[in-house]
Amino acid sequence: MNDIRRIMVLGAGDLGRRVFHELAQGDRGRHVRLLGRDPETTLRAANSAGFCALQRGHGAQVSHALTDLTDTDRTAQEIAAFRPDVLFLAVSYQSWWQISTLPEDAFKRLYAANFGPWLPMHLVPVLHAMRAVRAAGSDATVVNAAFPDAVHPVLAAAGLAPHIGIGNVANNVPALRTAAARQLGLDVADIDVRLVAHHYVSHRLSRHGDSGPARMGLSVHYAGEDVTAKADVPELLRWLPADYRRTGGLAGQTMTAASALSVLEPLVDGRDAHVHAPGPDGRVGGYPVAIESGRFRLLLPDGMTEDEAVAINLSGQRADGITEIRPDGTVVFEPAAMGVLTDALGYACERMPLGEAEDRAREIAERYAHFRDRSCERAEALR
After folding, report:
1. What is the rounded CA–CA span in Å between residue 125 and residue 149?
2. CA-CA distance, 166 to 277, in Å (whole number)?
3. For 99, phi and psi rounded to 5 degrees?
4. 268: confidence class by pLDDT, cuts 50, 70, 90
């Protein structure tokens, strides 16, 4: 039993269930536990994952438990009782894809705000989870899915940052590798890329094929050799929303789940890997990262310094609607981005100390629910 590797998935929403299901398809050396809030959803998800694993001949142990993130003591008790080696946080008050379910005009109106002004909706649940991790005395490697590009540097100010994030910068890497292999006439298995990019850039690349007003860093490697000079990078990027476009919205979370597993499985299995991930060790934005003996090391494009990589990500942070994350964790928002939410929801916030995040999240949730209901009523009346 001492050889069993334990991984806990905290959050039984769409992404948490997808990742839990895939982790459960492992071998007998894993015990995977789903920790959710809703009894019916959590039970069904755990049973489904376990039964599918049995059907496929796998033998990972599967279990589940219940908690509410706002109950720090209960959550800490569950973490301490399970003693996870790896803890995956799939918690958010409002997943990124939810506004895509609005009527089209309402969606476009909110989409213009970018992601930064919505930060409290992702920050607060992760804050609750990390307080529980500390209360549990857990030494698990914590991997977070909720806007790590900004959540991690904010929480780092309070010593509560998860170790690393998933998604965002990673989600375009397979398409970039495929496009580079096609352009250079090489086998994609021998192609690697190193991409430095904030959430804003990753989001924009798959839709517009460029980084917009933000900067990005990209190098292409063939069999370990930097071959970027042989590639037409602007053409590679233009292929992403064209020949290599992929499913978006809720259904597109298959890509985010795959990006999560690219980080989680090496950690669970105790092997080294080269991945892409946002927020490693509390940093802003996304980076190529080497996982080595459970630790993280930046694997930047040749010749790029960490200061340069951070500057690239800060340009994306501003484009995403966040002017600054101060050393004490206070967030200053871009006026134009916040103005979109003010116009649509009546919500305004120039700057947010960490201590105000919970009230801000509650206010956004209430105002968004009202906006959603009115938008749906108008759309229904026009049918």
Report:
1. 15
2. 5
3. -70, -20
4. very high
Q: Which segments of 209-321 does DSSP mark as H helices, in order?
A: 233-239, 253-269, 306-319
Round to whole Å and give the CA distance between 342 and 362: 15
- From residue 342, how far is each of 25, 118, 280 by CA, in Å? 45, 12, 32
Q: Which residues contact 203 (CB under 8 A, 6 or more apart)?
A: 115, 168
| Token digits of residue 163 | 């170790």
DSSP state of 2: T
For residues 88, 92, 97, 101, the Cα torsion angle rounded to the nearest 10 degrees is 140
C-alpha 6/C-alpha 21 separation (Å) is 15
What is the C-alpha to C-alpha distance for residues 122 and 71, in angstroms, rounded to an integer? Answer: 17
67 vs 11: CA distance, rounded Å: 9
Per-residue pLDDT of 332-380, as tens digits, reads 999 999 999 999 999 999 999 999 999 999 999 999 999 999 999 988 8
What is d(CA 12, CA 10) in angstroms, rounded to the nearest whole number? 7
Show the domains of the chain with their CATH numbers. Answer: 5-165 (3.40.50.720), 322-381 (no CATH)
Closest CA to 122 of 102, 95, 101: 95
Cα–Cα nearest to 282, from 151, 167, 166, 171: 151
Residue at token pair 């706002």: 70
Q: Helices 253-269 and 14-23 meet at what angle, rounded to 10?
A: 40
Type of residue found at 265: E
Q: Which residues contact 377 (CB under 8 A, 6 or more apart)?
A: none
Q: Report d(CA 189, CA 177) in Å as an integer.
A: 9
Contact assessment for residue 269 and residue 203, using Cβ atoms and an 8 Å cutoff: no
- Does residue 1 carry a pLDDT above 60? no
Q: What sign does the dihedral 102-105-106-109 (CA atoms) show? A: positive
Residue showing tokens 């991409």: 195
**Number of CB atoms found within 10 A of residue 303's CB:** 8
Residue of 157, 154, 162, 164 whose CA lies nearest to 134: 162
C-alpha to C-alpha distance for 273 and 336, rounded to whole angstroms: 40
Q: Given this model, what pLDDT does residue 250 score? A: 87
How much is the pTM?
A: 0.96
